[in-house]
Amino acid sequence: MKTSSGEIVTYREKQWHGFRTELVRRIGLARQEIEVSGNAHAIFLNLEGAARSGENFIDGRRSSFVVRPEGSLTYVPAGRSWSGWDEGDSRAAYLLLTVDRAFAGNFFDDPHKVERLRPELGFHDLAAQFAARKIAAELFHLDQASELIVEGQLTTIFGHLARRANQRQRSVKGGLAPNTLRRVVERLNDISEERVSLTSLCQELGMSLPHFSRAFKQSTGVTPHAYFNQRRLEHASMLLRTTSSPVTEIALICGFASASHLSTTFTQALGVSPSVYRSVWGRAGK
To answer: 247 and 154: one domain?
Structure first.
């Protein structure tokens, strides 16, 4: 699916009924060719390294290239294709989950719902990411319970893929104009700002706060406050994965009042504390 001249230094795989997992770690990477297609759903978690440039094609049609940093996810539904090439860090690792088309229908009350999912490259979803990471960790201590555990994590992943698809469907029916939404998202994504004032944003846009909040939720599926908190959590999770900085320091960098504030918010979102998240991410044979 992904071919490169790099040397494989770690390879783990396991096939169960209806789904398969593979973990690949390479060094000495250069250009990497991509060809993903078939009658199975493919989910990639970028465990290490980043794809920084390249070309993407979905079902043979050019799609804008998306940088895929460590921690990002890519999803290609059964019957769809992703091809192209990328270049980036010389050392990289990824987890690939392939789920049979028929088996994926078991995750939904209506099996046809899985057919509505769409390809998505280089996206961030903390809950789906953490579920995939726990699957990667499971590959290093397989036992009789592993199949049940992995299937449970796949249920979480497909649930969040369905939620993302529902949010995208709502956004096409109205909301903020594309240029306005892009401008607002850029502001909300800048967590370095000590405080993002929705009131000042509304004044710049010439909109009332209630109208802006409704339009933003219609465009994104979440309120402005929830969106901003989600970005802060994503940034905190990145620092937990990639640095050894104390949780208190990470909390302050990301705009949380204290380590306990970050811990409470983090636990509500993922069901685990920042320290447990960091511990799980640090497994999988690094």
So the answer is: no
